[in-house]
Design brief:
Layout (H helix, E strand, L loop, with lengths): L2 H10 L4 H8 L3 H8 L3 H12 L2 H14 L9 H4 L11 H7 L10 H8 L21 E4 L14 E4 L1 H7 L4 H14 L8
Antiparallel strand pairs: 1-2
Length: about 190
């Protein structure tokens, strides 16, 4: 018989939460968790309703950016971003990212403070919007593969298409390739 079944069996006998906790030598919160059908859903709903979707997604993007070089495996379950945060972060970050800790050097608030709510793509100049998570990605200006770090100074907000084109190139390498492509196709390239 599982722990949950024992708790529910004692509850069906008319025992109180405190009595069940004393009998099974567990905390009252564990008893409450197993007896209440909607406890987990209510907890998750409070978090979702309290913070806008764009804030939760930007925080996850920051965590992915910072933990990028730690994701070496191709297994999807292991490749998911690690729910980590630095000491001294706010309660919102703790709830969204979970109980695990990592040395996060900045948060989504720092990104919004640096770029504003409507940043421009650092490669194309296109206007982006943090309220539309599909319209932007966070990119390493100097790629990790070329000794770039995971700091806020090396973070660039970029459109998804430009980020795919850039891949693991530096900006100078990307511009050189673009220049060669244009020249090969008959265009004259000059810098303003």
């Amino acid at each position: 018989m599982s722990y949950r079944d024992r708790i529910l069996g004692l509850r069906d006998e008319g025992k109180t939460y405190s009595e069940i906790a004393d009998i099974l030598k567990c905390s009252k919160s564990i008893v409450c968790y197993h007896c209440s059908e909607s406890r987990r859903e209510n907890s998750r709903a409070r978090l979702v309703n309290r913070y806008p979707r764009w804030e939760r997604l930007l925080l996850k993007s920051c965590s992915r950016f910072i933990n990028r070089d730690k994701r070496k495996t191709k297994d999807k379950r292991q490749r998911k971003w690690k729910r980590r945060l630095r000491e001294g972060c706010d309660d919102f970050q703790r709830r969204v990212l979970g109980r695990h800790r990592n040395n996060m050097t900045f948060s989504y608030k720092d990104v919004v403070a640096k770029y504003g709510m409507n940043p421009k793509c650092y490669l194309t100049g296109e206007e982006l919007n943090f309220l539309e998570p599909e319209s932007y990605q966070l990119d390493h200006i100097i790629p990790v593969s070329k000794n770039g770090d995971n700091s806020l100074d090396n973070l660039g907000v970029v459109s998804p298409q430009a980020n795919r084109v850039k891949s693991d190139l530096t900006v100078d390498e990307l511009l050189d390739i673009c220049r060669r492509i244009l020249i090969h196709n008959g265009y004259i390239v000059s810098k303003n």
